[in-house]
Amino acid sequence: MYILKNAWISITRNKGRNILIGIIILIIAMAATITLAIKNTASDLIDSYMNAYNKEVTIGFNREGMMKDFNIGENGGRDSVKEKFNNIQTYTISDIESFADSKYVASYYYTYSVNMNGSNIEKAEMEDNLGFGKRGGNLENQSDFTLMGYSSLDAMSEFINGTYTMEDVSDNAWDIAFDGNYVFINSELASYNNLKLNDKITLISTDNKTFEYQIIGIFKENEEDSQEIKMFSGSANTIITNSSNISKIVNDNVKGNLNPTFIVNSYSDVSKLQDEFYDKGLDENYILETNEEVASSSVSSVKNVNSFATTFLVITLIIGGVVLFVINMINIRERKYEIGVLRTIGVSKLKLTMQFVSELMIVAIVALLLGATLGAITSKGVSNSLLASEIKNSDNQSEEINKNFGGHGPGDGKLMMKGRGVPTIQAYSKINAVVDLVVILELLGIGLILVIVSSIASMISIQRFSPLTILKERS
Amino acid sequence: MEKKDILLRVINASYRYSDAEDGEYALKDVSFDFELGKIYAIKGRSGSGKTTLLSLISGLERATEGEIIFDGKNLKDMNLDKYRSQEIGIVFQSYNLLPYMTTSENIILSMDINGDKSKTKKERAIKLMEKVGLKGSYAERKVLRLSGGEQQRVAIARSLSYNPKMIIADEPTGNLDKQTENEILEIFKDLAHKENKCVIIVTHSENVCKMVDKVFDLDKNKSKK
């Protein structure tokens, strides 16, 4: 107990030196708090982004694998590749449902498209005078229209990423869109055929069956392709509906194009999932592809902030540690006489060391708490300004998506979709609570390490000092 | 004197520094006995080993050869920090008080180091001050505001704070005038003769040597009187 009492007496009698030590530790604590807060907030933000990103897995064609067969045998291997290509087994909706029934898959959606011809509407196309012939929206398509079916809102990636935005939409469109003969058409197609909301269109499948649909929304395409001279956008002849409607059209004679997307719990599970898909019958010329690279690149700026904060923290600690070490060395030299007296009257080296460490520890704790408080106040502003653009961006994205769906989408404008870099709103509250218990504990840990490291000088000196020599020198 | 009264035995004690040349000793083959109730002087010229002997008997250093037995226990087997804080009191020529503390705080610190947890430490400190001729009102006074003689009295009071059996003093009157020297020596004599303590004074003062019961001359490495 007398060790603490002595330490306190010593602190109060050496106010100047201890205030100097306190200020140094306070500055270190402030810098450490700010950098720890930024680091933790950035980590939270990265986690938030990565969680907000749907971990998407799509089925892609293994072109690289196929290309390996080229240059082998006659005709440079073309015949064998062609044969292999023609024999690739496609997958059906029931296959997709079977694939999705896996512990690695959280959810799934898909797009399903089929070629159709118009009955009471005409394909949007116009012959130019440049010698290129007629030009429509879908140049390579021999049919008039592509009827694109989405299994759910999540599948409507063009609306989520802003390629399409809804221009005009029925009030109840999103309540009925996935359950009936309803379609969304391109505004160019609507103008070309003088169509409006609630009008009905009739399409003919390639096996000559007719299907009637009611228009519940008109969208426009936002992508500009300045490289090509054309009257209509690429999606002018794309008619959007739900995937159930496509299933009604597709049969042995009418082929549909199925593109599934699986949401997985972790990217690390993808190779196991691929093996599972092969076991369930997926042709081995397909491979699974992820959006991990896109997800990761979108947080690169935050990662940079995080690594900068770490570097700054390490440099601060090294400089702070060296300065404290030097001050302690000077302190010990000044107090040799005191050490000599205390050792002579029976204070053990251990207790003397404890007294010196206690003195520094008391000053450090007070300075750390003050530094943490000041750092907490400062870090809020610093963190917010460093990371605010990221947060604002994410917030805007949520609003933007809602607008793309026509402003009053499902849930009356409360459309909150995960996926494609749409962070959740909780990131805001995390920013405002940057200095939490974890930061305080980290700070105390840092403080403890600093005190011990800078006390090494006093510990070594106390072990080496001969009390009688010190006292004789003094005499 | 009966053997049972011997408190400290120095038996063929020698000390050499770790970097000393072969055969070079700071103290060579010294043997003395110190009894309770007596006051001793250890004298010798500069370099005769007075300070080294003081270091050995006060437990600040360990003898490289020979033995030092205190109250039947070999110092080699004792915790020397505990020995200094509980068994002996040390008084120095330059007092060696902590200047940032008051008179009573210096004395109480010594009690604290001894492990004294009583609540009457301050009262006892004042009594000790009065015992060595200091006014109780000096208790709250910083030691640097006291004269040399007064500081030495505080140092003696501090050394008595845990009632040790032996007091070792290194030139305790070296910085004092003749009158004060005599007063301090009277205190030491009283401690030896009235309180049955063993008092050892390292000195080169002939006046001190005249007032003690026995003188050990390190130059001759033998005792006289």
Summarize the helices and strands and which ones pair or pack:
The complex is a heterodimer of chains A (about 475) and B (about 220).
Chain A: H1 2-13, H2 15-52, E1 56-61, H3 63-67, H4 78-86, H5 93-100, E2 105-118, E3 125-127, E4 134-136, E5 145-150, H6 157-160, E6 164-169, H7 173-176, E7 182-186, H8 187-193, E8 200-205, E9 210-221, E10 238-242, H9 243-249, E11 257-264, H10 270-279, E12 286-290, H11 292-297, H12 300-334, H13 336-344, H14 349-404, H15 426-432, H16 437-464, H17 467-474
Parallel strand pairs in A: 5-10, 7-9
Antiparallel strand pairs in A: 1-11, 1-12, 2-5, 2-8, 2-11, 3-4, 6-9, 7-10, 8-9
Chain B: E1 6-15, E2 27-35, E3 39-43, H1 50-57, E4 65-70, E5 73-74, H2 80-87, E6 88-92, H3 103-113, H4 121-131, H5 148-160, E7 166-170, H6 178-193, E8 198-202, H7 206-211, E9 214-217, E10 222-224
Parallel strand pairs in B: 3-8, 3-9, 6-7, 7-8
Antiparallel strand pairs in B: 1-2, 1-4, 4-5, 9-10
Helix pairs in contact in B: 3-4, 3-5, 4-5
Descriptive account of the structure:
The complex is a heterodimer of chains A (475) and B (225). With 475 residues, chain A is α+β, with helices and mostly antiparallel strands. Chain A folds into 2 domains: 2-53 and 299-474, no CATH class; 56-292, no CATH class. Chain A has helices at residues 2-13, 15-52, 63-67, 78-86, 93-100, 157-160, 173-176, 187-193, 243-249, 270-279, 292-297, 300-334, 336-344, 349-404, 426-432, 437-464, 467-474; strands at residues 56-61, 105-118, 125-127, 134-136, 145-150, 164-169, 182-186, 200-205, 210-221, 238-242, 257-264, 286-290. In chain A, the strands form 2 sheets. In chain A, strands 2-5-10-7-9-8 form a 6-stranded mixed beta barrel. A two-stranded antiparallel ribbon of chain A has the order 3-4. In chain A, strand 8 (200-205) and strand 9 (210-221) form a beta hairpin. Chain B is of the alpha/beta class and 225 residues long. Chain B has one domain (3-224): P-loop containing nucleotide triphosphate hydrolases (Rossmann fold, 3-Layer(aba) Sandwich), CATH 3.40.50.300. Helix content of chain B is 32%, strand content 24%. Chain B has 7 helices and 10 strands. Chain B has helices spanning 50-57, 80-87, 103-113, 121-131, 148-160, 178-193, 206-211, and strands at 6-15, 27-35, 39-43, 65-70, 73-74, 88-92, 166-170, 198-202, 214-217, 222-224. The mean pLDDT of chain B is 88. Classes of the chains: A alpha+beta (475), B alpha/beta (225). The interface between A and B is medium-sized, with 24 and 28 residues.
